[in-house]
Amino acid sequence: MFNRNFSVSRLPGFGAIAVFTFVALYLPIIVLVAFSFNAGVSQSNWEGFSLQWYEAALQNRQVRDVSIRSLWLAVVAAGIATVLATLAALGTTRVSRFPGQTMIYALINQPLMVPEIVTGIALLIFVAFIKVQTGYTGMGYLIAAHTAFCIPFAYLPIRARLETMDSTLESAAADLYASHWQAFRFITLPLLVPGIMAGFMLGFVISLDTVVITEFVKSAGQDTLPTYMLGQLRRTVTPEMNAIATLFLALSLCIVTAFFLITRKRGH
Known about the structure:
Elements: H1 14-35, H2 52-59, H3 61-93, H4 101-108, H5 110-113, H6 116-134, H7 140-164, H8 168-175, H9 180-209, H10 212-217, H11 225-235, H12 239-267
């Protein structure tokens, strides 16, 4: 029989494994942040506290350009992905079960199960073919690729929110002669906002962070901040890269925290 008093934290070695896991995950990040304030260029010897590398990063025009491009791309891709994911979630949860529904779930979540490198290579082949046929090399390819990659990340929290919502509220609205659009606008959509915001948050962070998809799809002059940093790290590791990575980390944490607080408040 199942022991209700069982706790995995009481297993021998659980504490040591947990501590080791947290140290392995967060110690490199702590070291990176700490050495972004190093006065010298060394990555191993502390030479005093300084903000010079942050000043250098903020004054670097190329860093500013790729940062603006990354933010713009993430907002656009996450926004489109959230709209499409919302429609997909409504189409797979607010209908009676139909043949092929499981297959649709699998197709939507496919990017989560396939290695990112496989998706990147597939997009490269597809985009290269279109570029040859049309001659177009603009940002549209990056927007489409990031959107496709972000859809499953936005779909999961939206679908989860729909599945936990009380469907009797929509039925009650229909009994009060509300149209399908009125029931959606005044009942479903307000209750779905936390899931939509969570989906947008996940899509934004994923788009902002992805390197593989961008590296395979981008054309010349379309670097995002992660691909720019990757190119710089191939040459040399400087405290300026530490400063950029720290700012990137701080931005991601602020976005995640803000959306968590908003969705938590709206969820109550």
